[in-house]
Specification:
Shape: globular
Radius of gyration: 14 Å
Strand order of the largest sheet: 2-1-3-4
Oligomer: single chain
Distance between the termini: 47 Å
Helix content: 10-25%
Largest sheet: 4 strands, parallel
Length: 109
């Protein structure tokens, strides 16, 4: 048996926007993941209730740096700003895995 402990998985959870209770979802997802996995979940939350929710973290081209996986739990269906969307997608095109929850599938088209 190995006595070394592995470093926790670094998870970024981005949540907010239209149509769901993202404040509650963020708390449930963070605690549920951290209780079940060796993981540290960082939550970026925007309380906007619109489909135009934007996230300051995405303004930086290296927004995903240091994370092992990103959970997208946002509804930003009206956000079509090409440079903004490109920054989001580039992180995943460069290899950072993503999990898209429900409304995230309607975002950044």
């Amino acid at each position: 048996a190995r006595s070394e402990e592995k470093a926790p998985l670094k998870v970024l959870l981005v949540a907010g926007g239209c149509c769901h209770d993202y404040a509650t979802q963020s708390r449930i997802l963070k605690s549920g993941i951290e209780e079940r996995l060796n993981a540290t979940v960082t939550v970026v939350y925007n309380p906007s209730k619109g489909t135009d929710a934007r996230f300051e973290i995405y303004e930086n081209k290296d927004w995903a740096k240091g994370y092992d996986v990103i959970i997208h739990d946002e509804c930003s269906a009206s956000v079509t700003d090409k440079p903004y969307v490109k920054r989001i997608l580039d992180a995943h095109r460069d290899g950072v895995p993503a999990v898209n929850l429900h409304c995230a599938m309607h975002s950044y088209r």
